Amino acid sequence: DPNDEQYWVKPILCEETRARLEHFRKLGWLSPNYKPKTLMGIAVVERYWRRYCAHLNEDYMTFLLSEDQAIYMNFFDWMYKTSKEKTSTGEGSASVRGVATNPGPSNTNTAKGGTRKRKQDESFKSDLPQPISFDDLPHTVCYRDVELFYLKNTGGRDILCAIIEFRNLKGRPEGADGTKFFMHGDYQLVYCPITYIVSLAFRDEAFENDALTPESIWRLKVPKRNRALPLRWKEVVDRPLLRRFVHAGFEDKLGHYNFRRWTANEANLHFTDQERNRVLGQSGSRIFERHYQKDFIPRDLQQVVLLRPSQEGLVQRAAGMLRKRDPLAPSDLNDDQIQTIRRHPRILELRWEKREFKEEMRSLAGTIQNAFPELYQRHNEVSKKLTKLRKVLRDDTRQKARKDYFLMAPVLEVDRQIQQLLGKPEAGDPNNTDDEDDIRSVVHASHQDE
């Protein structure tokens, strides 16, 4: 009925899934107009089928038109196994469980006692978009997702701004369009995303203008005939922008979820519920209320209860992450820690085993490349174990060193200031950053004593 609401045209599906399902609907393989919940469930199965074909290196349409029952049963087993391996019950998990536990087709054209394969016309050429391998899609913000430009400002100098598109949003299907956010410069450089993007762009040599320098970029102006002046990127459009926060000196390990919770709580204060859910990519308020609200109450209760003067500034500084930041915190391993890892008994054992395999391959085949496959495979397995163990020991040592530093550094600082108050000549200046080696040496010594 043309008067019925057509859910196919609503933006609840990614472009490729919508095109494929529309194609199947025109062929009569699907109902003319499913309801949104049913349509989203079918879309989930379609995306799993797309991934399954890519996993087996099979053609999407040929594999689908074969109508081999064994293929479908293997697909449902793989889909159910893949969905169970997910750590969260995201979009479509209930639909996957329902389809996987009842794999029978809802509308079949096969006769009893056998299968009837649909024949594909040789002249048929599908105009559907080609799927993109999931391994080829970066899982973070890249230069292609950032539109950097100067915006004309009638009240003063032109402002360098950016529009950033976040594609890897929670609850959004693969291939769906992302959400774009407008960013502008901030007088506090630690919170300025424009300075961050510009500095990384110069480091990566990403600007199309080779003559552009960190000094001249801030002097550009928008021509009178235009309202904006875009800055173009080179071919490094797929290079990720986000960097690690190990060298920032924070006590707690920072991840994307820290900033996501921060953004969610601030958006909750200033945006409507619908705008906040759009920013977070959530379908309702229940998830935010259960998992995103802060356990710290950033309000001055003494002002309300005891009628004392407001200290909102102190409250905000107490709630900030900079309260637990120490620029002197170790971010890399020192030489002694590296040597300790190299002398680890298990490391020495694996190195000796790897050396034995290498000598045996050279004695039997002359070179490692010409060695027997079984022997070469065992050599590679030992090499992988050695690499993995080194990484585990490095990470554990680095985490323990940082934990010991943040535990002992305040104690040493208090002792030093006490000595200074008592007039001891050996007490140093608590504001002197040259005592960095002294603090680290004491913390490292306490770590070695353990």
TrEMBL record:
Residues 103-112 have a biased composition (Polar residues). Residues 86-130, 423-450 are annotated as: Disordered. PANTHER family: FLUG DOMAIN PROTEIN (PTHR37535), FLUG DOMAIN-CONTAINING PROTEIN (PTHR37535:SF4). This is Uncharacterized protein. The lineage of its organism: Eukaryota, Fungi, Dikarya, Ascomycota, Pezizomycotina.
